[in-house]
């Protein structure tokens, strides 16, 4: 609760503090489950605070700070399929918040393009793991992973529509400035490729693809399954 209050009161300061803390503490550690087996764990508390900061679109400074800390965001979403539902859900929430932040960031104009590019790079990096989550044993994880993929599609359409940013000509003589830093990813095609790969992978090991098929239909994607 105290951390949430800090995030609400001063998002920029909170973002700086979280990044500094995350650089020290956001790393996997080994814990033991009820059967005494070693488990890979991630610091859920820090991930959840980053999610709250990422959801705050009213303070550009906090988003800039987080987007600039690409290593922290990568570590916060590392090992999504290694740990259980308790850790996977916050990581998916972070990816969803990241995808939903793209469009508001692009509304800043030129200054938001590089930030959006950094956010989209994180999403692209974690796309395969997100797709694998659509077959997770947990219904909550499956539902959230589909929501993340939908947010990625929406973010991709926002990026593509804002790829060309024209600034006013100086003294009427300078040509319009076209920004080319934003990722030119075809999210629809990439998601379809990952869904197809996941379906083939599961079929090859004798596992059902019902959840993959359902996700593809919900997202309006096509998966290609060739008969063997």
From TrEMBL:
Q: Which domain of life is it from?
A: Eukaryota
A cellular component term (GO) from this record? nucleus
For biological process, the GO terms are:
regulation of circadian rhythm; regulation of long-day photoperiodism, flowering; response to stress
The protein's name is: Photoperiodic response / GIGANTEA
Species source reads Plantago major
């Amino acid at each position: 609760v105290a951390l949430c209050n800090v995030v609400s009161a001063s998002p920029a300061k909170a973002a700086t503090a979280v990044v500094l803390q995350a650089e020290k503490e956001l790393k996997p550690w080994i814990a033991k489950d009820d059967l005494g087996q070693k488990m890979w764990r991630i610091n859920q508390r820090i991930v959840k605070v980053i999610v709250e900061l990422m959801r705050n679109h009213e303070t550009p400074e906090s988003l800039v700070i987080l987007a600039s800390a690409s290593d922290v965001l990568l570590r916060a979403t590392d090992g999504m399929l290694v740990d259980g539902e308790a850790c996977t859900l916050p990581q998916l929430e972070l990816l969803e918040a990241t995808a939903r932040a793209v469009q508001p960031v692009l509304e800043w104009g030129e200054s938001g393009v590089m930030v959006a590019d950094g956010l989209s790079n994180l999403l692209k990096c974690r796309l395969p793991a997100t797709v694998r989550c659509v077959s997770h044993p947990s219904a909550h994880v499956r539902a959230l992973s589909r929501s993340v993929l939908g947010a990625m599609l929406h973010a991709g359409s926002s990026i593509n529509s804002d790829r060309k940013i024209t600034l006013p000509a100086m003294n009427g003589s300078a040509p319009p400035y076209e920004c080319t830093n934003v990722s030119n990813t075809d999210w629809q095609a990439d998601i379809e490729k990952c869904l197809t790969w996941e379906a083939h992978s599961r079929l090859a090991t004798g596992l059902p693809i019902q959840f993959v098929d359902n996700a593809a239909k919900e997202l309006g994607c096509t998966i290609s399954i060739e008969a063997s």
